[in-house]
Amino acid sequence: MPPNPPLTAQSSKKGLPPGTLVHIGRRKREKTTATVIDYSAEKCEERELPSAADAAKYKSDSTVSWINVIGLHDTESIASMGKTFDLHPLLLEDIVNSTQRPKLQEFDACLFVTVRLFYFDVKSASLESEQVSLVLGKGYVLSFQEDARDVFDPVRAAIRQGKGKLRGAGADFLLYQLLDVLIDSYFDVLENIGYAIESLEEDLLKRPAPSVLSRIHKLRREMIIIRKAVWPLREVLSAMDRLDNAFIEKKTHLYLRDAYDHTIQLMDNVETFRDMLAVMVDQYLSLASNRMNEVMKVLTVIATIFMPLTFLVGVYGMNFDFMPELSSPYGYPAVWAVCILIAAGMVVYFRKKEWL
């Protein structure tokens, strides 16, 4: 498999009926895999699922089952999982389309949530993302990821060790925990972007080079991408909190409101960073203009100093026989002395006027 496989475009679905499963996006894994954690307050079972058919026994209401699927390119496996849990074809279509906007949809058998997960490479200052789809049903949560880089390990650890309220709560609380971990990952990404902005500010003040401006524009584009994900995520959590649905218990709404507050904080951070980058662009233009002015001032001063000197040497460069200074033994050093005195006098005058 190539390191950067080609992107399957949205246009590949042209003419196909609604609900047709076509993977949109880059294929990030060679094979689609699935794992399950089935737990209650007393026990916890974790294993890999050889096939979607093996997930059928985890539809029981007596325990909470979390099935995590990694790899969206295998549409047959996704379709089989959808058949096992009676998922709507349009829901499955959104799962395999990895370019979805974060959203919440309510179906008869489940709730469907789509969010984006971001990774920020500090060394290259580049942003990567993947789509994460979550399905909440009666006693189960399904999660679908594009890649194996997993942010859900803290949730797995909490389930295994029986920490907190997770083992004693229902599937809706598990959904909240997964969303909360995803939101926390946004804070990590923004923290790293904040460090990158601080580094940019230092480089900008040292030398406003075009490479610095290029880095600023790159971060601005990435902040736009993050904003386009955080803004609808805030709407998703707000809608979930207002939702009157049997899949979400009343006591879970308090936690959803807390997650919503975190998205408000995320939006504040995103807007702050966007404003900072916009100011840095203006600052770059101002510093570059000031630097150009300084260069032009120095060149103008040099040209101004040489103007009278050029006049003098021009006069004494004329080919006349009867110029008094030509026959004087001190004529040459005298001209040099006059030139030096004029240049020194102009420098002193410029400094007194604070032009230098």
Describe the structure.
This protein has 356 residues and is an alpha+beta fold. The chain has 2 domains: 7-286, Beta Polymerase, domain 2, CATH 3.30.460; 297-352, Magnesium transport protein CorA, transmembrane region (Methane Monooxygenase Hydroxylase, Chain G, domain 1, Up-down Bundle), CATH 1.20.58. It is 52% helix and 16% strand. It contains 7 helices and 9 strands; from the N terminus they run βββββααββββααααα. It has helices spanning 75-84, 89-96, 153-161, 171-206, 210-242, 250-315, 331-352; strands at 7-8, 25-26, 33-39, 44-48, 64-70, 103-106, 111-121, 126-137, 140-145. Strands 4-3-5-9-8-7-6 form a 7-stranded mixed β-sheet, sandwiched between helices. A hairpin with a 4-residue loop joins strand 6 and strand 7. The chain is elongated.
Average pLDDT over all residues: 85
What ranges have pLDDT less than 50 throughout 5 or more consecutive residues?
none
Percent helix among the residues?
40-55%
The number of helical runs is 7
CATH class of the largest domain: Alpha Beta
How do the helices and strands follow one another from N- to C-terminus?
EEEEEHHEEEEHHHHH
Tally of DSSP β-strands: 9
**Shape summary:** elongated
Query: Helix- and strand-based class?
Result: alpha+beta
Question: What number of domains?
Answer: 2
Q: So, CATH architecture of the largest domain?
A: 2-Layer Sandwich
- Proportion of residues in β-strands: 15-25%
Trace the largest sheet across and list its strands: 4-3-5-9-8-7-6
Instruction: Give the radius of gyration.
Output: 34 Å
CATH topology of the largest domain: Beta Polymerase, domain 2
CATH level-4 homologous superfamily of the largest domain: CorA soluble domain-like
